[in-house]
Amino acid sequence: MNVEEHHLTVPRSARYHTLGDAAGANHIWIALHGYGQLARFFLRPFVGLESGKFIAAPEGLSRYYTDAEHSRVGATWMTREDRDHEIADQIGYLDRLVEHLRSLCPPGIPVSVLGFSQGVATACRWAMKGRTPFEQIVLWGGSLPPELAATELRRRWSDSTVLLVHGMQDKVVTAAALAGNEAKLRESGLGFRTVEFEGGHALDGLTLKRILDPGQ
Fold first, then answer.
1. How many structural domains compose the chain?
2. Residue 65 lies in a domain
3. Which domain holds residue 109?
4. pLDDT tens profile 58-100
């Protein structure tokens, strides 16, 4: 007897947290957390930067206990198991979230995305395959997923400002990984900028402020 695999699309609740006043916003920012984080804690470095912006941090659809005592919970965007469906689900979720946020905000305002760590791959896949156009794509402390083709990158991201952000003391995403990201973007012919800071595998408040409020 053969075991057959099937899939069924079901509704479910997706959690997200926000900062800022939607009605008065002139920019929507989507902040994608890293592996094992929760959205409400990931938003803490953004507090105080929400003036004129509506910042939303969606949470990965899969949660798990991160310690042996089952006292701490984290979320993940995906694993390699049933990979294609997980990617499709996360892209559909994020596109639907932006549609909802736009309904709360003034019409026509731009949308940007910042992905951190595992959120970098999520942001890249969304920007490649989703329906949402981005003014800025900020890839912080993570690796571009291997399936990104240079020609598709150029076609999909040519109207976006692309930033690579790297902590010079990052032990998780090394300088070699940063160089690999730069090489892939260079191969695509896209313009991009690398921003480095003295720090490790974390969001840096001063660097974050410079990215979200470049004129200040």
1. 1
2. yes
3. 16-212
4. 999 999 798 888 988 999 999 999 899 999 999 999 999 999 9
In a domain, 1, yes or no: no
Q: Which ranges of the chain have pLDDT less than 50?
A: none
Contacts 24+ apart (CB under 8 A), 58-63: 58/14, 58/15, 58/16, 58/30, 58/32, 58/93, 58/94, 58/97, 59/14, 59/15, 59/16, 59/17, 59/33, 60/33, 60/90, 60/122, 61/12, 61/14, 61/89, 61/90, 61/93
Q: Decide: 128 and 45 in contact? Cβ < 8 Å.
A: no
- Per DSSP, the three-state class of 186 is helix
Q: Where are the alpha helices (DSSP H) in 105-158?
A: 118-129, 150-157
- What pLDDT sits at residue 216? 63
DSSP 3-state assignment of 181?
Answer: helix
pLDDT at res. 71: 87
